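dumping this here so i dont lose it
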């Protein structure tokens, strides 16, 4: 999955991120995803090639765009634990 740092540099109308390869496997005896999950991202980082992976907390707003690219096609942050409903 490609995340662009500067989304405003390319002004084409349908410039959505592309998916190269993404895999998530959840294994549990009851078929439900376990609450305690370890999410790792293995970036291609030319600025710091010594960093092999980044751990992401399951409550991170950056996880939703990776898990649900159709709902967050531009990589905007997803759900956050401190959000409150302001109107209906």
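and the seq i came up w/
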């Amino acid at each position: 999955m490609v995340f662009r740092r500067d989304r405003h540099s390319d002004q084409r109308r349908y410039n959505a991120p592309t998916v190269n390869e993404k895999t998530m496997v959840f294994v549990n005896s009851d078929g439900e995803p376990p609450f305690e999950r370890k999410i790792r991202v293995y970036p291609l980082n030319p600025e710091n090639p010594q960093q092999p992976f980044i751990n992401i907390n399951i409550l991170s707003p950056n996880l939703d765009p990776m898990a649900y690219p159709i709902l967050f096609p531009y990589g905007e942050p997803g759900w956050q634990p401190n959000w409150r409903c302001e109107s209906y």
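The chain has a mean pLDDT of 72.
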